[in-house]
Amino acid sequence: MRFLRRPQALTSNDIGCVASIGNFDGLHLGHRKIINQLKEKSTTLKLPLTIISFEPLPSEYFMPEPPARIYPQRDKVRLLQSMGVDNFLCLKFDAAFSQQSPEDFVNKVLIEKLGVKYFVVGDDFRFGHQRKGNFQLLKKIGDEKGMQVVDTPTCDHDNKRISSTRIRTLLEAGNIKSANALLGARYQLSGRVRHGDKRGRTIGFPTLNLKVLDHLAPARGVYAVRVSGLSDKPLTGVANLGARPTVNGTENRLETHLFDFDGDVYGKYICVELAEFLRAEQKFDDFGALKLQISGDAEHARKILAD
To answer: What's the rounded Cα separation, in Å, for the pair 109 and 95?
Structure first.
């Protein structure tokens, strides 16, 4: 998959694709339905499949306290690639972009740069300066310029609409299993293992450290986890997602202790599945109390993962 930051990166050889646009935060069952629809059309028309999104997300640009992200950018890219997307065009959302008229965006980006032949979007999609662009405008310009524009029906689960907001609420409550049902996949965070403070090894619990977004949806606390990327089969462990208040930490990290594992992991790329939420993050008076709690958390996690 090609990861493109701006339309200027496209050449005349890139003109012609099937596409969709949106935040695609979470890449849930509704998003997967759109991508599968595009994959079918991509095969029929023999054209690449392009997903268009933004960085930062529009809500992060306009709102002083935007919703937490379901996935960091690197995991969005990883998931899109695994779904068979050919091109991910991630447009910089800034003052200039926000002032662009919807007509200019459709004509200059979708038609001239991308040459979109088949475009899937929700019928409630709004875009362009002051959100004046809508499905009807896309359909009108598409009919004039040879771009077929179709909407996608709502995707439901348990008679309720699947949405990023709904999934975000479940993750914030630590309800991983229900969130997974709407995501259509197990929730995972990925990254390269980096050096940490190495405090965990002093109390018998060395950890694999990943830096994660501060503004991320899953509840801060301790999880039973499975880790892929270090062995032929997923390894099990216990992890803390948060800022580590016992050591007055400020940086949000995912620190994972693997069971029955000893190996050189620094620099390796891993995926950590948050299998089940065990408890909220808390501050302990000393390392003795922290070690005792981690021992209990590890035993709890072993039982859950064994089942």
So the answer is: 17
Cα distance between residue 61 and residue 54, in whole Å: 10
Beta carbons of 100 and 128 less than 8 angstroms apart: yes
Q: Distance between CA 14 and CA 151 in Å, rounded?
A: 24
C-alpha dist (Å) from residue 107 to 3, 87, 130: 22, 19, 18
Domains annotated on the chain, with CATH: 2-156 (3.40.50.620), 186-306 (2.40.30.30)
pTM: 0.92
Spatial contact of 196 and 279, defined as CB atoms under 8 Å apart: no
CA distance 35 to 72: 19
What span, in angstroms and rounded, lies between the C-alpha atoms of 138 and 22? 14
Q: What is the pLDDT along the chain (307 residues), one digit of tens a residue?
A: 999 998 888 877 789 999 999 999 999 999 999 999 999 999 999 999 999 999 999 999 999 999 999 999 999 999 999 999 999 999 999 999 999 999 999 999 999 999 999 999 977 789 998 889 999 999 999 999 999 999 987 889 888 999 999 999 999 999 999 999 999 999 999 999 988 666 656 556 889 999 999 899 999 999 999 999 999 999 999 999 998 777 766 688 999 999 999 888 999 999 999 999 999 999 888 878 888 999 999 999 999 999 8
Cα dihedral: 134, 140, 144, 149 (round 10): 60
AA identity, residue 83:
M
- Which tokens sit at 226? 């499975």
Distance (Å, whole) CA 158 – CA 136: 30
3-state secondary structure at position 265: coil
d(CA 132, CA 100): 10
- What are residue 273's DSSP bridge partners? 188, 226
For residue 264, the 8-state DSSP code is -
Helix axes 176-183, 164-172, angle to 10 degrees: 160
Tell me the two tokens of residue 230.
């270090």
